């Protein structure tokens, strides 16, 4: 007899966008594995998914509880009713995901339906709730709770508002009573369109779910979120500071390539999930996944003299070795607009390096950094993106802008010199794998502003530099050198 293949339907869901990504059962279980497993053997442990989309977390939690409570509640139906009514709770993201989640958890889109696995519910929603919310607009046209743009999300009742209940209401308002949860776990929505740019600009909101969950003071909190918070930026600076200084984060699992975690989804900067343990106070066990390679290291999230998370475990010792006598290149790299608001023209007395083509400008129109106009300037593009497998270039090619020249905001000025030889020597440094590897530790997206050069030490530019010279200067061992070589490709 031929055995029929019956796939788990939750493995077959197609993501409609990268804003709200469905979690596979396998991934949900990897996150649940981080929890103390005795939680699933107690009839009192209470779980909450505050952003349920498919219901996968609640289903997998329920499966574990039904096994863990077998000895304490022998009758299966009694055990199911107890788990469903007393231990697993969810707040859906939309009306549609509420029905989907109930179908996953209760085997019926109505908790009290004919085909529901539990006989204990008297209402349709059960413990998996959704109630349409509305944004609260301030004088600036932004939602007071999530920062959504009034122009984008002031909608009729026939359209989804994306005013997620968990970050717009209190738990008492949602469940109509005060509730305390031992475990909060989920995969929150990642961003909202903020109405900027040409309509494609978005702001992160996943951090709001993490912060709201912490306010409920659970024993454990686990969420999977984009990893762009490592570098801060738009709406994430305070969140980054909060997370990296939180000694209660016991585990952090990082995926540099989001496709290794969510096949088919390309999230710039990758994704991560973490376990926050209220009783933990110490270093974090960091596991990094990078194209089939996995490493684990127990370490502080913030290295000494750093405000940034060093993403790759193999890079931690390299970063520590470069700290001796450290002067950061970040201190001399120009700001985003090295010479102010300038536009390349056809005629002028000063050359302008610009994209897509160079031009000129009259010197009298330049209002910023005039002192370096007649120097040799080492310039580089402020953005450079790559996808796929390592090794990466990390940065675009540096070039020397001659005296009587400037550049638009397409480029940054890394340094300036009176002597062209020193400028050439600095270019040799920028082209080394060592230099670009240290940039990679800060560069989580295609953008490469001044801050990505924080870990790069300033060198003596009276002579050119090679990787061999830098490896020797900083006493890197063969494993550290091999890691750099595997991550960065030569720049011709």
Instruction: Tell me what portion of residues adopts beta-strand conformation.
Output: 15-25%
Count of β-strands: 17
Q: Identify the strand order in the major beta sheet.
A: 3-2-1-4-7-9-8-10-11
Structural class: alpha/beta
Mind describing the biggest β-sheet?
Answer: 9 strands, mixed
User: In DSSP terms, counting alpha (H) and pi (I) runs of 4 or more, how many helices?
Assistant: 14
Give the end-to-end Cα distance, rounded to a whole number of Å: 61 Å
What value does the Rg take, in angstroms? 27 Å
Characterize the overall form: elongated
Binned, the helix content reads 10-25%
Q: Could you describe the 3D structure shown?
A:
Helix 1 crosses helix 2 (56-68). It contains 14 helices and 17 strands. The relative contact order is 0.08. The protein has helices at 25-33, 56-68, 76-86, 95-106, 150-153, 165-168, 171-175, 206-215, 237-244, 316-321, 420-430, 433-440, 467-473, 478-487, and strands at 47-52, 88-92, 128-129, 183-186, 191-193, 202-204, 220-226, 249-255, 271-277, 284-290, 293-299, 350-353, 359-361, 376-381, 399-401, 405-407, 411-417.
């Amino acid at each position: 007899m031929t055995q029929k293949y019956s796939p788990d339907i939750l493995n077959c869901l197609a993501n409609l966008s990268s804003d709200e990504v469905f979690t596979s059962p396998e991934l949900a279980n990897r996150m649940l594995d981080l929890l103390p497993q005795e939680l699933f053997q107690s009839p009192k442990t209470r779980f909450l998914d505050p952003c349920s989309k498919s219901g996968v977390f609640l289903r997998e939690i329920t499966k574990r509880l039904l096994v863990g409570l077998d000895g304490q509640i022998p009758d299966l139906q009694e055990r199911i009713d107890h788990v469903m009514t007393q231990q697993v709770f969810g707040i859906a993201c939309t009306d549609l995901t509420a029905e989907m989640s109930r179908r996953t958890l209760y085997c019926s889109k109505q908790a009290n339906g004919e085909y529901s696995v539990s006989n204990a519910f008297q209402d349709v929603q059960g413990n998996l709730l959704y109630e349409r919310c509305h944004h609260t607009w301030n004088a600036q046209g932004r939602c007071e709770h999530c920062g959504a743009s009034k122009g984008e999300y002031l909608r009729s009742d026939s359209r989804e508002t994306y005013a997620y209940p968990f970050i717009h209401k209190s738990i008492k308002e949602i469940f109509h009573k005060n509730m305390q949860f031992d475990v909060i776990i989920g995969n929150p929505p990642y961003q909202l369109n903020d109405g900027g740019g040409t309509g494609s600009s978005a702001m992160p909101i996943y951090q709001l779910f993490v912060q709201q969950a912490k306010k409920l003071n659970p024993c454990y909190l686990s969420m999977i979120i984009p990893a762009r918070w490592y570098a801060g930026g738009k709406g994430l600076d305070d969140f980054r500071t909060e997370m990296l200084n939180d000694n209660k984060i016991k585990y952090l699992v990082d995926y540099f390539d989001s496709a290794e975690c969510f096949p088919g989804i390309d999230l710039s900067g990758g994704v991560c999930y973490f376990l926050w343990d209220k009783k933990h106070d110490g270093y974090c066990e960091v596991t990094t996944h990078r194209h089939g390679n996995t490493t684990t290291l127990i370490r502080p999230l913030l290295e000494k003299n750093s405000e940034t998370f060093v993403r790759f475990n193999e890079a931690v010792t390299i970063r520590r070795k470069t700290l001796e006598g450290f002067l950061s290149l970040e201190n001399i790299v120009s700001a985003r607009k090295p010479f102010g608001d300038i536009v390349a023209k056809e005629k002028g007395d000063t050359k302008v390096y610009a994209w897509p083509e160079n031009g000129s400008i009259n010197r009298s129109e330049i209002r910023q950094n005039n002192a370096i106009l007649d120097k040799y300037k080492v310039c580089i593009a402020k953005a450079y993106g790559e996808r796929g497998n390592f090794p990466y270039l990390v940065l675009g090619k540096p070039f020397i802008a001659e005296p009587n020249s400037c550049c638009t905001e397409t480029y940054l000025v890394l340094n300036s010199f009176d002597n062209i030889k020193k400028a050439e020597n600095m270019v040799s440094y920028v082209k080394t794998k060592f230099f670009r590897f240290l940039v990679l530790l800060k560069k989580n997206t295609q953008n490469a502003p001044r801050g990505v050069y924080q870990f790069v030490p300033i060198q003596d530019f009276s002579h050119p530099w090679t990787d061999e010279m830098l490896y020797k200067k900083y006493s890197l061992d063969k494993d550290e050198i091999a890691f750099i070589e595997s991550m960065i490709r030569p720049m011709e």
